[in-house]
Amino acid sequence: DTQMTQSPSSLSASVGDRVTITCQASQSVSSHLNWYQQKLGKAPKLLIYAASSLQSGVPSRFSGSGSGTDFTLTISSLQPEDFATYYCQQSYTTPVTFGQGTKLEIK
Amino acid sequence: EVQLVESGGGLVQPGGSLRLSCAASGFTFSSYWMTWVRQAPGKGLEWVANIKRDGSEKYYMDSVKGRFTISRDNVKNSLYLQMNSLSAEDSALYYCARVTVAGVFNYYYMDVWGTGAMVTVSS
What we know:
The complex is a heterodimer.
Chain A: E1 4-7, E2 10-13, E3 19-25, E4 33-38, E5 45-49, E6 53-54, E7 62-67, E8 70-75, E9 85-90, E10 97-98, E11 102-106
Parallel strand pairs in A: 2-11
Antiparallel strand pairs in A: 1-3, 3-8, 4-5, 4-9, 5-6, 7-8, 9-10, 9-11
Chain B: E1 3-7, E2 10-12, E3 18-25, E4 33-39, E5 45-51, E6 58-60, E7 68-73, E8 78-83, E9 92-102, E10 107-113, E11 117-121
Parallel strand pairs in B: 2-11
Antiparallel strand pairs in B: 1-3, 3-8, 4-5, 4-9, 5-6, 7-8, 9-10, 9-11
């Protein structure tokens, strides 16, 4: 199985900050990497697919980059509604696997 | 409105069975792969199984192979997960999700999610 490792596991930041979350795959997943946001008690929401494509309706302050084994999710200017847990997920190999999550908290 | 609604969750004893359903609306159900993803309380997301548009291909995570069966009814616009021989490790919130496969390189992503059905395995 392809292991996905996110860092950091948790992060404290302030409104307006620029935040970067990284995701590393144990083997190449090409650009088959997606990012999801999950708020407490809610279902996950797709933010980024194919490493860098913004899902329709997602604010442009979210961006993704990377290919192969190393990927990043960047939030350019944190808004209050962005405090949540973020997951990366590879879909290059079966089984599909998720990172362990990065919890983004208010400083 | 595009929507997925799960049902069938509940409390079951170890070794028991449960069948989850997911009712889809607002999109052409038969045009999409579908998947089940679970989340144990306080834990991360874990893919469970997926099924091709016409039901001809099915894939499972190793720990549920032989115990869980994913199926669909494209007339009823419904997805199912039959779960047998349940153990405490299967206790989780089970989400159904729509899968979009797009582009020349068949990028696969879960773009619509239900609200989840809670399964608790306990004596």
